Amino acid sequence: MGPTSSVPFVEKVRPYPRKPEKITMALIEETTLISSPSSPQCKVQHEAPALAFSVGEYTQNFFHDFVDVLIPLFITVNSIFPDQDFILVIFKSRDWWITKYADLLKGFSRHPIRTFESDIDTHCFPSATVGLITHGVMTIDPKLIPNSKNFMHFHALLGNTYGKKQPSSSKPPKARPRLVFAGRSGGVGRVILNQAEVKLAAEEVGFEVIVFEPTSSTTLPESYALISSSHVMVGVHGAALTHFLFLRPGSVFVQIVPIGVENMAEVCFGKAAKELAVEYMEYKIGVEKSSLLEKYGKDDIVLKGPMALHKKARASGITDVSADKQSAKFDLVKFMEYMKIMDIYLKEQDIKLDLIKFKLYLERAYQKAKVLVDKEG
Asked: Which residues does the UniProt record annotate as the domain Glycosyltransferase 61 catalytic (predicted)?
């Protein structure tokens, strides 16, 4: 749009890539675009175009940092600005978020980053792209990108950004494959109740085992150094498994899948792991090993029909949506019902692993990891 009409043109948008998810988009604050002959005088004139987007509401979560921002940013840049001659303008960003991902963001553009809320001056650009392109959850479709970039190219970007900062001490011992166990503790849900025994079983198989529970103070170079130098990563479905993006091709990734998250496990991690040439394995929990059995009983729909319950949850939450204006009205009761159903599987459920069965997975992972060790010499 341009200032060619005497009548101001106003458009409200939510510059966030999860457009099909009505509940999520309703939580994103609107940005108002105005085209008018009378506009504020430019304080700063840029020669490069702007790419503006919102960091949104979910980016205190490592998974959503990548799925909602960083991967769509990679897709958008390679679709529209392959020469990297543009300026990042970020809405609703927090200082800590920009600091955390500063090194990676610098890899997208040759220009300094601009944050919308922290700058009171009027900046003018020759043009602007508002919002990011997404191909779906944890998805990069090379057929939809002019230069055919894929997940391996995104993986290379991560390596170029964080691999250079690896200390030499991060290299694993050659004799024993290293297994990184993405642990969960406290009242977060999906905790492995017999984690100590599982760790011992992995050591008995032959692994050097490191329990990895990243905190807010864990830097990305530290995480990259550990994960990329390991041979196997094991963990329960959750945001921390997003670190699988740091694994090398040929590494092994074992996702432990609790009751009720089977579809999410494949969509969020399984598909992309295969595209990164990682040996992917799923270990699905039986009903008898879920803490939900004691709470609900084996005949409850929570355990007998989790997919039907998920379908009911997805249908709840929004009563009126206007696609043109991207606005939404909540039915609060239905939205709370949706959240309650999701929390059953993601927050209320803890698990125990069948050590005999899971040890078979560990043995398979060990044999695959030994191949990688042998290649390392």
From this structure: 62-254
Assign domain 164-291+349-376 to its CATH architecture: 3-Layer(aba) Sandwich (3.40)
Which residue intervals of the chain bear CATH 3.40.50.360?
A: 164-291+349-376
Measuring CA to CA, which residue among 53, 97, 101, 49 is closest to residue 75? 53
CB 59 within 8 A of CB 69: yes
CA distance 214 to 233: 14
Please give the sequence-ordered ranges of beta strands (E in DSSP) within the chain, or none if there are none.
Answer: 9-13, 31-35, 44-45, 50-54, 87-91, 114-115, 123-124, 128-130, 178-182, 208-212, 232-236, 252-257, 279-284, 318-322, 327-330
Which one has a higher pLDDT value, 172 or 104? 104
**Is 22:323 a contact under the CB 8 Å cutoff?**
no
To the question of pTM greater than 0.85 for the whole model, the response is: yes
